[in-house]
Design a protein that fits this description.
By secondary structure, this protein is an all-beta fold. The protein is 0% helix and 37% strand. The chain has one domain. A hairpin with a 2-residue loop joins strand 3 and strand 4.
Length: 73
C-alpha cells in the first residue's frame, strides 16, 4: 500500500544508457528510476497505491533510454 517495494525485473538486453535514464513505468503514467545490474536484471521501487487511480495492481513497463511514450489514451 505504501509503495517503495523493490521490484526485480528480468528480461534481455538491458543496457545502462546513463544516470536516470532507466525507468519502470506503472500503468503507463507513473514512473520510478530503475537500476540496471546486468544485461538481464534491473530493480525499481513501486509507487504507492495512491498513484494507481483506484486499481489494486500495476502493469509495469521498462524504458532504458528515458524516452518512454505511453500508448494510453
Amino acid at each position: 500500500m505504501s509503495g517503495f517495494t523493490q521490484i526485480l525485473v528480468k528480461g534481455k538486453n538491458f543496457v545502462e544508457f546513463g544516470f536516470g535514464k532507466a525507468k519502470c513505468i506503472f500503468n503507463g503514467t507513473f514512473e520510478t528510476n530503475a537500476t540496471v545490474t546486468d544485461s538481464t536484471t534491473l530493480y525499481c521501487d513501486s509507487p504507492t497505491l495512491e498513484n494507481s487511480n483506484g486499481d489494486l495492481w500495476y502493469n509495469v513497463s521498462v524504458s532504458l533510454d528515458g524516452e518512454y511514450k505511453s500508448n494510453a489514451t
